[in-house]
């Protein structure tokens, strides 16, 4: 980004990104502005009422009349105060409501946008940074929309009104004061630029700490097993100190800016006040006029002081808004097509075809994960993908789910190019049991229902029985309503895998993807789950990524990948007889001689 654009992005103009979120609430904004103007007008009416009290409240010679005059003037002052209180309360409610509402909408919009991004986004963006933007940055925006912006507008109106009254009542004096105030603006612009840069840097450092915390807290067993608690605590401490140091620099510059503005403004207005006292002594204005001037000066000074504070908040919020708009501007390379082709209704599983597919991961653009892969899978067929680590087995599954798009070639499901199908319809047609089972922080019932939230309880239990998960779920304190803990910490690895299998069975898709689905199970559990998986495979197409011989042998066809290329395919017996890569893998991984494995 050019320096000019970068400077612009870090100015309060960045807040213009909030306009789409403010537009739906034009009525509430209008009411807030009305109440704001009325509150400011009430404040400006106070000095006028005070002047009337001083100049007219004591003019009557009769003590009784004088008392009545005073009562009338104090009643007018009370009316001004009551109006100020009423309008201020209404303004406070409206702007606070707007701040909460807009922040909630912004937070929801950013989160909804992030969860639609392809895995490529998460290869380059840390989860902790996204969380920081959803929390810290949106809180800064809330402060501005729900408080600072209103305070800034109100004090601008009051400051301009007070200045206008001072100019009208003392034009000669205020001309001198205004000339002095112009000199205040020039240094303020310099300090403001420094504050803008440090505000963005401070928010970036806070995001760094969030990223470290999210990464480490999600890997605590590894951290503790390697006795790295102190090292990770020190790393977080260093990041926190860096954030503090940046914030300290920003605060120091901002303090100098606030102090300079208030001191310079106060000095200029004191000069005007001094000139006013000279006018009273010389008889050119009344004492009430001087009292009115004093109050207007106080209003103007306080308004400038508040505006200097608000300006700092605006700069911080501008940086936060810029970061949030960056997230919202991110476009996933895997996008929904405007006019998707409908996937046909199928019976007996989906057909899948890879036609000369070459693919590079965005993070590894010089290394092909798949090279000219051509593979046809018939409806209802079970295919096992085998090969050494990095051969491209899991990549096949990720391309089928359209987490990424291939660089060349095409992939079809039931005759429709994946890039022409609706993402939702495509992924609803596929069930997956990943190697690392994902368990959400909710009940066992809701975890199994994840693919079909409206599934009846009886079907959930039937799926759990099929996955041999019913017995251990029923043994939990609250059965299917038991909370499974964050990432399923209350379950063993094998139990988590069976819940994941039950989830896929309940979804009942025509295409089932099993990515090392039995890797976390002991021998006894594997036998139970293997039987459940065989029942789940009936009547649907299944693609299995597995190393275990028991799973591979039952496949209709075994496809062997090496360095992203298809090197062999056939049945277990056929591949063992060829003594190729599959036979070598079988002998290494399962401790079998090729002749024994083929028997």
Structure description:
- 64% of the residues lie in helices and 10% in strands.
- By secondary structure, the chain is α/β, with parallel strands linked by helices.
- The chain folds into three domains: 12-329, ABC transporter transmembrane region fold; 346-429 and 510-599, Rossmann fold (3-Layer(aba) Sandwich), CATH 3.40.50.300; 439-508, P-loop containing nucleotide triphosphate hydrolases (Rossmann fold).
- The strands form two sheets. The chain has a six-stranded mixed sheet with strand order 6-7-8-3-9-10, sandwiched between helices. Strands 2-1-4-5 form a four-stranded antiparallel sheet, covered by helices on one side.
Average pLDDT rating: 78
Per CATH, the class of the largest domain reads Mainly Alpha
Oligomerization: single chain
What's the number of structural domains? 3
Secondary-structure class: alpha/beta
Secondary-structure arrangement, i.e. CATH architecture of the largest domain: Up-down Bundle
Spatial order of strands in the largest sheet: 6-7-8-3-9-10
| CATH topology-level fold name of the largest domain | ABC transporter transmembrane region fold
CATH superfamily of the largest domain: ABC transporter type 1, transmembrane domain
Strand percentage lies at 5-15%
